[in-house]
Structures are given as C-alpha cells and as structure tokens.
Amino acid sequence: MNSTRSWILLFGGVCFLMGIAAAALGGSSKAPITHLDPFGAYADHMVQHYELDKQRGEALAVVLASYKEELDHVRSRYLPTYHAAMEPELSALGVRYGVMIRDKVLPPSARRQYVHESEGLLQIQDTPR
Question: What predicted TM-score, i.e. pTM, was given to this entire model?
C-alpha cells in the first residue's frame, strides 16, 4: 500500500462506510410529520383535540376547504394593493367560519371551550346557536 491510489481508495471506502453508519443512526429516529398546509394541521388538531367523529371531521374538512378557497379569492383580489386593505374582510371571514365551525361542526359540549380557546384570535360571541 505504498501507492497514493491505494490510500485514496482506502480512505474513500472508510468514508463511505462511515456515511452509511451515520445515516443509519441518524435516520432511524421518526420525527413527527408536520403539515405544510396550515389548514390540514388545524383540521388534525381539531379532530384530535375535540375527539370529532368521522362525520364531523369530514364536515370540518369541507368547511376549511371552503374557507381556504374564499381566503385565496380575497387575497388574489387584493394582492396588488396594500395588505391592510384586506384585513377587515379577512377578519370578517375568520369570524364567519369560526362561528360555522362552532355551530355546525363541534358538538354542543365542546363549543364553549372552542370559543374560550379562540378568544383573541376571533371575535366570536359565546352564544352558540
């Protein structure tokens, strides 16, 4: 093993094996899956936190899909203008959909908790219908 070529091959092989070992050790831990879509993360949180059944979870998905569609529509209309101009309309949408989630998706027993937890984020009155 006096040639430089042999030493380079040996060093390359050792580095390769070290890389495999590091990948096996570091890649074996399972990190929690994070959503890139905030609506998906919110839906998962709501389903788990309020223990929604399948039907209510599907209703929440429909409500959130509609909410996202309307948000995108509002954003696309105001994109060329200053962001502050769309804030009142976005706030009204947030309240409208918050009320829809509270009244149409959540079971009556969880509505007061939802209003309490969303206090400050949405201006929802604590008067479930």
Answer: 0.51
Beta-carbon contacts of residue 95 (< 8 Å; ≥ 6 apart) = 122, 123, 124
If asked whether residues 72 and 89 sit together in one domain, one would say yes
Cβ proximity of 37 and 71 under 8 Å: no
Range of the domain at 67: 38-117
d(CA 4, CA 41): 55
Cβ proximity of 35 and 47 under 8 Å: no
Cα separation, 12 vs 102, whole angstroms: 61
The per-residue pLDDT for 17 is 76
Q: Do residues 89 and 74 lie in contact, with contact meaning Cβ atoms separated by under 8 Å?
A: yes
